[in-house]
Amino acid sequence: MGDAVSGTGPNARAHVLVKPINADIRTNLMIATDRRTYHLELESVPSGYMAALSWRYPSDELAELTSRNRQAISTKASVIDRGLSLDGLNFYYRLAGDRPTWIPVRVCVDGRHVYFQIPDNIETTDLPPLFVLGSDGDAELVNYRLRGKYYIVDRLFEAAELRLGTKSQTVVRISKGAERSGFAALFGG
Predict the structure, then answer these.
(1) Angle at 25 between CA 23 and CA 30, to 5 degrees
(2) Which tens digit of pLDDT belongs to each residue from 92-145?
(3) Please, are residues 147 and 118 in contact by the beta-carbon 8 Å criterion?
(4) What ranges in the chain are assigned the alpha helix state H?
(5) ∠ CA 132-181-77 to the nearest 5 degrees?
(6) Which residues contact 128 (CB under 8 A, 6 or more apart)?
(7) What is the torsion angle, in degrees rounded to the nearest 10, for the CA atoms of residue 118, residue 120, residue 126 and residue 132?
(8) CA dist., res. 171 & res. 31, Å (int)
(9) Per-residue confidence at 188, pLDDT binned at 50, 70, 90?
(10) Which single residue of 2, 72, 117, 165 could bond 105 by disulfide (Cβ 3.0 to 4.6 Å)?
């Protein structure tokens, strides 16, 4: 019987090594740690052995998962625009056309700006330029900026298109629909 350690620092793991030299022997083993005490019954058999034994602790796993989620939320959370309130947003824009990986997750307006939230998985994808469709249907480039995962357009419009490509373009049309505002629009109300 012996012990060993693998890993370093917070990833260090203690190992208890047990190797019986005869078959059909029995004993018990108590392992005391700073958090728990383990009582084991050991029995050697001639036909095989148990190569490893480990424990999982759901409460520890839940605490680690909760901590990772808090950290992910705090690092991903970003301010879209100063003074922007969910109650003042309207979600009446609708999407149509192609369904590329960069299709906006949601589109909303605060009365002065239009915001497009783009998916999280677009790091390796080219983002399309935005064209506003004029009253005659012609596409015009419009000023916008990217902040985090949001396009912010500094003017309102009836219809616009995100276009990517030259000969065979991928096109997502964004057009004004019926008014749905605030939290109800976000959560299906």
Answers:
(1) 130
(2) 889 999 999 889 988 988 888 899 888 887 766 788 899 999 888 898 888 898
(3) no
(4) 58-76, 182-186
(5) 80
(6) 102, 162, 163, 164, 170, 172
(7) 0
(8) 64
(9) very low
(10) 117
Which residues, other chains included, contact 35 with Cβ-Cβ below 8 Å and sequence gap of 6+?
none
Give tens-digit pLDDT for 112-122.
889 988 888 77
Q: Note the pTM of the prediction, 2 decimals.
A: 0.51
Q: Please give the Cα distance from 152 to 149 (Å, whole number).
A: 10
Distance CA 102, CA 96 (A): 13
Q: In this predicted structure, what is the pLDDT of residue 185?
A: 44
Written as six digits, the tokens of 109 are: 């307006």
